[in-house]
Amino acid sequence: MKASVTTLDAKSAGKLDLPDAIFGLEPRQDLLQRIVRYQLLKRQAGTHFSQDRSQVTASTRKIVRQKGSGGARHGARSAPQFRGGGKSFGPKPRSHAIGMPKKVRALALRHALSSKAKAGELIVLDAAQSKDGKTKDLQNQFDKLEVTNALIIDGADLNEPFARAARNIPNIDVLPIQGINAYDIMRRRKLVLTKAAIEALEARFEGQVKGAK
User: Fold this and answer.
1) CATH of the domain at 123
2) 60 and 141 housed in the same domain
3) What angle do CA 205, 158, 11 make, to 5 degrees?
4) Number of independent structural domains in the chain
5) Which of 79, 70, 71 is nearest to 51 (CA)?
6) How far apart, in whole angstroms, are the C-alpha atoms of residue 118 and residue 29?
7) Same domain, 203 and 111
8) What is the pTM of this model?
9) What is the rounded distance in angstroms from the CA atom of residue 41 to the CA atom of residue 36?
10) Under DSSP, is residue 173 helix (H, G, I), strand (E, B) or coil?
């Protein structure tokens, strides 16, 4: 599929062939849901913790005598029903991550890229570079491109002035190609890929691209 290449000043920079094996798939909602859930669970801290009755520091002296009180025969203040007592079956530190095969993760990433291309929310940028790193100048360029909520993916090395200027703009994320992931693609309205990023994606999915041909 053909895509128009633009500059940061919203000027045409030619055309580019996008591999159908990466950008021309019919998006599958089930795959996108699975990969987003996988990423969110993997990043969950899982550090929640509560003490059970064996960990609570409390007197073990018998509260009331065994018989004659008319109440239950409690033996310690650490029981869960008492204020300050331990929690029954409370949360403990654990990993929330779930497993997902590497090939499924790669396929889900291609479906996320295809979903942006199909929705017309993909912008191919000639280069993501800034001379002076001024946020105001970059904001003006984004206004010309009508980019207000986007994920920008560059090649292996980010242009430092561009990244510095972009991080002050709300709802704009800038990542190198190594950090591309389905969740960040889906959470932003538009996806902006530089020519260097597309070349890196073609190299990454070289087998799938050749298979499609």
Assistant:
1) 3.40.1370.10
2) no
3) 85
4) 2
5) 79
6) 13
7) yes
8) 0.83
9) 9
10) strand
